[in-house]
Amino acid sequence: RSIRAENVCRDRLEKTIILFTKVLLDFLDQHPFSFTPLIQRSLEFAVSYVFTEAGEGIVFERFIVQCMNLIKMIVKNYAYKPSKNIEDSSPETLEAHKIKTAFFTYPTLMEICRRLVTHYFLLTKEELMMWEEDPESFAVEETGGDSWKYSLRPCTEVLFIDIFHEYNQTLSPVLLEMVHSLQGKILTTNNKHKYIFSPVFNAVGLAAYELFDSVDFDQWFKNQLLAELQVSHDRYKPIRRRVIWLIGQWISVKFKSDLRPMLYEAIRNLLQDQDLVHMQKSRIHVTNYIFDYLICTCLFFFQYLEPMFTLLFQLLQEVTQCDTKMHVLHVLSCVIERVNTQIRPYVDCLIQYLPLLWKQSEEHNMLRCAILTTLIHLVQGLGADSKNLYPFLLPVIQLSTDVSQPPHVYLLEDGLELWLVTLENSPCLTSDLLRIFQNMSAVLDLSSENLKNCFKIINAYIFLSSSAFLQTYATDLCRSFCELLKDITTEGQVQVLKVVENALKVNPVLGPQVFQPLLPSVFRGIIDGERYPVVMSTYLGIMGRVLLQNASFFSVLLSQMACELGQELDQILGNVIEMWVDRMDNITQPERRKLSALALLSLLPSLNSVIQDKFCGIINISVEGLHDVMAEDPETGTYRDCMLIFNFEEPKATEDEEPPTEQDKRKKLLALKDPVHTVSLQQFIYEKLKAQQELLGEQGFQALMETVDTEVVAQLQEFLQSF
Known about the structure:
single chain, mainly alpha, 37 helices
């Protein structure tokens, strides 16, 4: 009973102490200058209990964490840091900085640094026991498990990083002395240095950026660290784990590329050594660092691709915890992303395993997110061959993007990304791929941050098979777009309009019909002089497609607008042309500028008085278009339209670029049918002017040309001199 009472008393006392320290931390956070008189006493209190013998036997973990947080907040507090120009600093800041500087003397900093490394960075008996009994749980715990966030170890590491950054000139020699004291030491299981190796390596890894100029890491790697990785004794596992982590920290800081093959070899040996099962499981989180940097920066990896991928896949099958599987999947995704199409010969095993893993992870949405990410890179690597994954892939997309299913909260973003890359790499539209678009209407209704990917998906369907897609879903799509346009940002409005523009470009006959409900608002936007240039530019792009590629529908639309607005048809046409000419500068894309010139020129030849009245503006736009697209041929000295594409060349990727997707190829083929890329603007102007001349006769045509500025006429004649 007395023991129980003592425990209750201690528990209450600890809670009271934590409450007091929390009040102190909140006071410092909210009122840093009012806290200034307490800086000296707070630092003395915290440092004495945490970094001297005064606290031995009486401090407890949560109290140590609170004290370390107090020290960290004082060290990092921006209110206590003077400006580079001292005169710009407030007296309060200078006073606080003076107190800090007086406290953090060399002996104090050295003792804090040494204690952090040699005492707090050491693995505890409990951690070592957990390592032996359940290494995978140990790895998960250390890389961010729920309890890890509130434990002592991350707190000590953060404090070390902050103090080392703030006082690196003072502390670098202290840490380097520890490193030098270990170099050349032969480590045995009974060696007195065996416990200090791992903490020192930990400190050097955390301070990697600060030690950039002080440590020759390449030499250290060759002369010592590589050998440490080759020691196979069981009790050496913590050292090997810390060494591989240390290398991962330094790879992004300082590591010569010609050393990478040596490291790849070491990693491969570690992964395939069957005696190191514990080592494999517990260090998978640190291999993430290494693969992230090595694979993305070094072509040497390709010769290790097959064994590395095979060993990582085996590890994925061996581990049991979701967090560990997520880490392994991250590494595999990184490999697939980097090598892209070269992964194809090695992924059959992974393709066969992922459906099973997906089924097993039904209650673990974060693991399913990792699977989705892996599938994204897998589809990109397989390209058109990814169609063989559809029996598994499409149901995954269906579930992930179904907002009526609870998992969508976790899976939607990655599911949309997977949906998009699947479409981009699809060689053809299947009935199942078309069917899952039923999910899109509800996703659009969410009006979330995923809208951009939704629009990309819709565009991908249009490029893949516009007729089948629009005939099936245009009605629902129009309804969703009309709702979106009522309450959407300017950027979102442009994205909606670009979908319509792409539909008109890909299918100039069906496109205007299915999106007819949206076109009157586009027409009104042009006539009213839409104030946002980017929106106006898209409006004109849409109207240009209708006018140039479906003139009969333009006439119907013109009649509809005249009826709705209660104006004469010619008056409406004149207003459109006038606003088009006036706002041409809103269009910055060369393709749209040429489209506008072609569209307005398509009104010629004409006897219509309104069109003749706007003839000067049409010619001005046409000459501007010529300046945009005409380039002088160095061989012949003549001008040619640089936007013309004469034959299909499959897009090629450079070494640093991803290979072209099936969608890239579709866009290239589409360009061969697009007037912007198949019609010479120079030739088109000449033919239209010649037809207008024949219609009006020489005298009438000259009278029309006199309405155009003489400088513009001169430029036009120069461009047309070859005709």
